[in-house]
Design brief:
alpha+beta, Gyrase A, domain 2, 2 helices
Length: 90
């Protein structure tokens, strides 16, 4: 997965997540919004075949990139748990 950072300040990050769509971005923004330091987590797919732009803003100048990293780790952990459960069930 490749990203291009469009904007980065102390409390805002805007990045293009190349090659991803609604499935991953819905999971990621949902997980971001569970983080108490995150103020806004949203994404925009401007055209049907364009890459989504993720925007994250935080409270109290918390690092938005770190918030994205934590959310990605939680999504990854949830997927790993699901795989483990599926393997046990089969």
């Amino acid at each position: 997965m490749n990203i291009t950072v469009l904007e980065l300040t102390d409390d805002v990050v805007r990045m293009v997540i190349i090659g991803q769509g609604h499935t991953f971005l819905n999971a990621l923004t949902n997980e971001l919004l569970q983080d108490p330091v995150v103020d806004v987590a949203t994404y925009l797919v401007e055209f049907q075949f364009s890459d989504p732009v993720l925007t994250v803003t935080t409270h109290d100048m918390a690092n938005p990139v770190e918030a994205v990293k934590r959310a990605c780790q939680r999504v990854s952990g949830a997927c790993a748990d699901l795989l483990t459960q599926l393997e046990s069930a089969v």
